[in-house]
Amino acid sequence: MKVADSMAGILGATGLRSVFALAGASHTYLLDALDRRGIRIVSSRHESGAVSAADGYARASGRLGVALVIADQGLPNAIGGLAAAYYANSPVLLLVACPPAAWTEPGAAFDTSKLQLVASVSKWSRMVHDATRIADYLQVAIERASSGRPGPVVLFIPSNLPAMELGAEAASGADA
Hints:
Helix 6 links the parallel strand 5 and strand 6. By secondary structure, the chain is of the alpha/beta class. Strands 2-1-3-4-6-5 form a six-stranded parallel β-sheet, sandwiched between helices. The two termini are 14 Å apart. The protein has six helices and six strands; from the N terminus they run αβαβαβαβαβαβ. Helix 1 (3-12) packs across helix 2 and helix 3 packs parallel to helix 4 (74-87).
């Protein structure tokens, strides 16, 4: 089972029916896995619009809203929608595809420490470093977004992780 299939299973178990995305090639495996589970993928023309749509979905449905963007220009563009979800106490999960850690060099154009960019407009944000831990991170993110005072959470996922194969022990929870 691929990491993307595990992610789609966990998201589907929340009752999720739609995801909102300004997706890139980094999201291919996850989008395919979501589509196979019958989760509708709604394309957006701007990252803030994708997050705002996930916010609206959460408000209207009472379920978790999910948005997909890429890290480079996508994350800064998504901040406006993320802030609106934060101040509305909407349970929104923003999945940010970022370059694999192995691609990052000192002085590179991409700064891997984007967590501070979302700190003031999210309840919780983390970077996933290990494919075998993605289910744990995703389940914690969903719980954090929905528990207590609801609000948006951000999970950064290196673009190479969704295509990786998981062993049987790491895939547990995917069909929950």
